[in-house]
Amino acid sequence: MARNIGSGEAIVDILQQEQVTHLFGIVGSSFLDILDSLYDKQTIEFVGTRHEQGAALMADGYARVTGKPAVCIATNGPGVLNLSYGVGSSFVAHSPVVYIAPSASRDHQNRDSTQEFDQVSLFKPITKAAYSVNKVERIPDAIRQAFRIATSGKMGPVLVDIPRDVIAGTSLDIDDLSVDQYRPNSNRTRGDRELVSSAVQEIQQSKQPVIVAGGGVNWSLAADQVMQLAELTGAAIVTSYGRADAVPNDHPQFLGHLGRLGAEEAISAIQQSDLIIAAGTRLGQSTTFYDNRFIPEGAKIIQIEIDPKELGRNYPITVGIEGDVKSVLEDILEGLQGSGELNLDWKTTVLSQHVARNTRLDTELTIDSYPMKPQRVYAELRKVMPRDAIIALDAGLAPNFGQDRLVFNEPRTLISPLDLGGLGFSFPTAIGAAFGAPDRHVVNFNGDGGFLFNAQEFETAVRYNLNLISVVMNNDCWGSEKAYQKYAFNERYVGADTINPRYDKYAELFGGKGYYVDKIEDIAEVFQDALRVGKPSIIEIPTDPDEMPRPARLAEVQSNS
Q: Which of 467, 250, 453, 472 is nearest to 377 (CA)?
């Protein structure tokens, strides 16, 4: 039955139907009708941030951890412009985020009015869809369409541009619909049966298979199917870059991740493989570098992707299956019934490499040099990190060491900037994760430079008393860029060094807890105290500025230098 209500209330009603619990943004005059409609609602909390970029990244973090659509809002003009990095982040991660973007009133558009620009055109390249609502009556369908697009197929962000006067509309009819009446609640599309049969045949003929588990495994919660396939076929399990949480790391056939600072055991296994099962991954640049340093030229590839345009896009494939990775793997496992355990010799090698990787990481507990190496910091924290902790890693050198050195045994517990590689990412996304999983410990790792990109959001974390620990590894430089200048430009450093405040003092200024740790033996104890303290905290750890591994893309710089 239709009800006649105002535009702001209609938007809030649809968010309630979608079971949205948090709306991230900064109060703005362009959407006060929406905020006023929240005043009497107890189901949606408006999370007021200190910068729109922080709000957009929080929504991204919330969506990644919960697997549910998140919502962010910003005022028109500069507020919407500030969303762009966070929108790009959710686009790269395929996070289902709906961005509500108020715009200039219809009478003022195309007149260079105050805070007016073409928001839809700007955001189209970094969203699944971006469109404008041109009349009040279209609001319900436009918002529902945004959730439909954001959550279907390969998920991603959607931006809905709504003029200020449309948001302030006083009368429209809205039907009370349940979510399943206007959008599907499942992405479980199955693969073509003939292609599945071809994949089964290739797997049965392989001798040294490797499964590359990507983001699709996490979104589909397909870790069990990956492990079952590995156990049946003897395959090594490796993960794509930034997806080390796709399968439990304590599985005896897990060898680590590929890409920058990737696990040497994972790299060795895939270099020896005769069949690669690319499960829910497009085999992108940060994972493969688009060459054959990891992916053997002669290896066959079975690729499973929900987005058909990614099939065979970066490497020639033997079998390409469009579909949900969990559903496709279930069908492959069914097809392998009766095959018995395959490739027992290869499986023995894989099991030994899992042990070798753990031994390699444990040896880093003996690194006693000062300033501290990031490797030793992670080795100490690995001993005391809660098993179900959600970990956000920033871009940059020090956080990237964590991808191979922290342990992820539950899905959706690693949040990373992936191929976007943007600094300032991890802290606000960790805040969003803390809202999405309030009963979990959330830890974010940052370099000294990256943390300052969105450090103002520490006030947001304190205001909402979030269960959040920020580790800042301070090497007083832009480490990734300095590494390029070291290896490609003969240590001719320009703009690479910084001067920083004491981050522990910064935390205390905002009402949080601050720690400064310059002794190895204190790291674990301080971290355990931060877990118990009951308020947001910052742990500053000075680290070695000379710890700069050779960059993975060094050749791209050297060819032009």
A: 472
Higher pLDDT, 114 or 399: 399
Q: Are 40 and 12 in contact (CB under 8 A)?
A: no
**Which runs of E-coded beta strand occur in 372-449?**
390-393, 414-415, 442-447
The SS3 of residue 417 is: coil
> Using CA atoms, how far apart are residues 535 and 23, in angstroms rounded to an integer?
22
Residues 201 and 270: beta-carbon distance below 8 Å = no
Cβ neighbors of 224 (< 8 A, separation 6 or more) are none
pLDDT tier for residue 83 given thresholds of 50, 70 and 90:
very high
pLDDT tens, position by position, 298-330: 999 999 999 999 999 999 999 999 999 999 999
Which residues 6+ apart lie within 8 Å of 58 measured at CB?
24, 47, 49, 72, 86, 428, 429, 431, 432, 435, 457
Query: What digits encode the pLDDT tens for the residues 210-235?
Result: 999 999 999 999 999 999 999 999 99
- Report, in this order, helix, strand and coil percent for the chain, each rounded to 5: 45, 15, 40
Q: What is the 3-state secondary structure (H, E, C) of 164-201?
A: HHHHCCCCEEEECCCHHHCCCCCCCCCCCHHHHHHHHH
pLDDT above 90 covers a percentage of the chain that reads 80
Residues linked to residue 98 through DSSP beta bridges, in sequence order: 71, 158
Label residue 559 by pLDDT band (50, 70, 90): low
Does residue 73 contact residue 167 with C-beta atoms inside 8 Å?
no
Task: List Cα–Cα distances, 476 to 37, 446, 500, 544, in angstroms.
Answer: 47, 12, 7, 9
What six digits make up the tokens of 289? 């570098």
Q: Cβ distance 41 to 62 under 8 Å? A: no
- Rounded to two decimals, what is the model's pTM? 0.94
Q: List alpha helices for 69-124, DSSP H.
A: 78-81, 84-93, 119-123
Element (H, E) at 302: strand 300-305
- Write phi, then psi, for 75 (nearest 5 degrees): -75, 155
Q: Would the CA dihedral through 29, 32, 35, 39 be positive or negative?
A: positive
Rounded to an integer, what distance in angstroms lies between the CA atom of residue 299 and that of residue 390? Answer: 35
CA atoms within 13 A on the CB side of 349: 19
Those residues with Cβ within 8 angstroms of residue 442's Cβ, 6 or more apart along the chain or in another chain: 389, 390, 391, 392, 430, 433, 434, 466, 467, 468, 469
Three-class secondary structure assignment of 21-58: CEEEECCCHHHHHHHHHHCCCCCCEEEECCCHHHHHHH
What's the rounded Cα separation, in Å, for the pair 53 and 57?
6
Predicted confidence (pLDDT) per residue in 432-491, tens digit = 999 999 999 999 999 999 999 999 999 999 999 999 999 999 987 777 888 888 888 888
Planar angle of CA 308, 245, 261, nearest 5 degrees: 90
Give ∠ CA 129-26-500 in degrees, rounded to 5: 105
